[in-house]
Amino acid sequence: MNTVKVLVFPCGSEIGLELHRSLKGIRFVEVHGASSVRDHGAFVYANYHEGMPYLNDPSFDEEFVSFVQEHGFDVVFPALDDAIVKLVDLADKLPCTVIAASKQTADICRNKEATYQVLSDCWFNPRTYRDASSVDAYPVLLKPSVGQGSAGVKRIDTPEELEFELATRSDKQVICEFLPGEEYTIDCFTDRHGEVRFASQRVRNRTKAGISVNSYLTQPSDEVRGIAEQISKRLGLRGMWFFQLKLNAQGEYRLLEVAPRVAGTMCLSRAIGVNLPLLAIFDALGYDVDVMPQFDACEVDRALSNAYALECAYDAVYIDFDDTIVRDGQVVLPTVQFLYQCVNRGIPVHLLSRHERDIHESLAAARLSEDLFDSIVIIRPDQKKSACIDASLNPVFIDDSFAERRDVHRTLGIKVFGLDNLDALIDRRE
Question: How far apart are CA 395 and CA 416, in angstroms?
Answer without folding.
Answer: 9
